[in-house]
Write a structure and sequence with these properties.
Layout: H1 36-46, E1 50-52, E2 58-61, H2 92-107, E3 111-113, H3 121-132, H4 138-141, H5 144-148, H6 164-181, H7 183-193, H8 207-219, E4 222-228, H9 238-247, E5 252-258, H10 265-275, E6 281-283, H11 294-307, E7 314-320, H12 326-334, E8 352-357, E9 360-364, H13 377-382, H14 395-405, H15 408-415, H16 423-434, H17 445-458, H18 470-473, E10 517-519, H19 525-529, H20 536-542
Helix pairs in contact: 14-17, 16-17
Bound molecules: guanosine-5'-triphosphate.
The site of guanosine-5'-triphosphate (GTP) has 24 residues, from helix 12.
GO molecular function, one term: GTP binding
InterPro entries: G_CP_dom (IPR030378), GNL2_CP_dom (IPR024929), GTP-bd (IPR006073), GTP-bd_ortho_bundle_sf (IPR023179), NOG2_N_dom (IPR012971), P-loop_NTPase (IPR027417), TRAFAC_YlqF/YawG_RiboMat (IPR050755)
Subcellular location: Nucleus, Nucleolus
Amino acid sequence: MPKLHVKVAPGVGGKIPSSSTDANRGNKIQGTGRTRSTVNRIQMYKTKAHKRDRKGKIIEGAGDLTSRTPEVGAGRIAPNRRWFGNTRVVKQQELSEFRDAVAKVSHDPYSVLLKRRKLPMGLVAETDKNRDGARLQLLETETFEDTFSKKKWRKRPKLGNGDLGELARTADERGQHFETSTADTRLKDHVERDEDRDRCFDKGQSRRIWGELHKVVDSSDVLLQVLDARDPAGTRCEWLESHLKKEAAHKHLVFILNKCDLVPTWVTARWLKVLSKDYPTVALHASVKNSFGKGALITLLRQYKRLHDDKKSISCGLIGYPNVGKSSVINMLKGEKVVNVAPVPGETKVWQYITLFKNVFLVDCPGIVHESHSNSESDSVLKGVVRVESLKDTSPVFVPAVLKRVEDKYITATYGIRDWSDPDDFLTKLAKKTGKLLPKGEPNHDATARKVLHDFIRGRLPWFVTPPDPRETENEEQDTVEATVDQDLSKLRSSKQFDNASDPSLAVSQVSKSESQQTLNPNSDAADLEWDASDEDDLEEIS
Ligand SMILES: Nc1nc2c(ncn2[C@@H]2O[C@H](COP(=O)(O)OP(=O)(O)OP(=O)(O)O)[C@@H](O)[C@H]2O)c(=O)[nH]1
């Protein structure tokens, strides 16, 4: 039988000590993993702060409590992370995996992060702060060893400023930068910059309107940004989107592509594809009697309510450019006229609350235009931001812009005139045809131009901004919907055809479900099933 050689650690009497807290066990014996210094430290913590005799009387230590007893040695208490509340130690790798996972989810418009308060979101947000330069990016510029280990070489923290004078200068510069970037001063600069510009072109930019917008944003859980299907990119407020991402990431943003009855099917379908990459998008024709997309929108709102089950009710704010149809969307959802609608911008003056269901409220907002949009005068008029009646002069720029956007064949189809040489000739011919004449039979160019502008804004003259081709950016398969490129625009105004105008399924994409995530799907049947029984009336109304 082979002899067993046992290597004995230097212990008392040459034996292997049995206790793992015996300092004589030597370094890292037989898988215990405790070094001599660790064992010594643990035993140090065992030293009690004070000793008591059999009767419980303190006889050693705690000199402050019993001044008559001698102070012998100081007791130590082992540190415990439970002192700091509900904490957990995570490794660097775990943290970066968590950051990546949460960043991925929070950038996906179809995933909703629930129970944010239970997740250490600060750890994710920290990276963004770093990016802004608000914090020093220590670990991005130096290695962990150089920064924190025992071998760290840097003795003083990097303050970014050498002396007090430099600090004061930096603070001054930052203060000036802040002032110039606030909305009020931007508006002031804007007016000062362009004093000749008529004030009517600054509609939707006043402090009062922006105050109303912030009230709506603050009080809403879901924000419905209404876009005009004829020019979605031109009526989109990107500033507000980035503001929401930064300041209120927990609020949900949804695009509503309204007035899709005024554009061909393929245009709606393409815009849906383009916009739904950024946010859930629903195509809509906001009309009380003859609507399109109402069911999809209501289902989506229900899903948001389900996500916020902890709340009694949710509020959905309607925001967007003036005259895009925010109030019309509310009337459509309610199925009756509850708020004023007008074919002129600025009809909604203040925010207003409307009850959609007992636990879903709608908030109407006046139309807003962000100063960064830098609309030219003709842009403002053609987007319907400015009331045509308030224009001092109509013909010089606006009518040529209309003639540029609308194809000749549609102008001929609408007005029955053809072969005009220039905008003036066009106005003369139209004035004669419609009987808009001044004394002595002179054609009234001003009145005719106003009529053309009204027709353009209200959708009588068909036009749209061509959407970007999704195939240009990503090699997508041939889309069958696009075979209808040459569809006759005039036919599309009949609502029957527009029942197929857009495929609401384009407005969603599937994502995997997990504990803290849920999928949004406007067409989800499950959402209907889980809806309150008390809402059955609404269901009937939708069907
Ligand atoms: N063809 C068509 N017209 C629409 C649609 N939705 C709204 N409109 C018209 O657009 C005009 C403006 O609608 P409003 O609902 O008052 O627009 P708003 O965004 O509330 O306007 P502000 O009060 O300026 O903010 C009205 O004449 C509506 O009839 C739509 O889906 N199709």
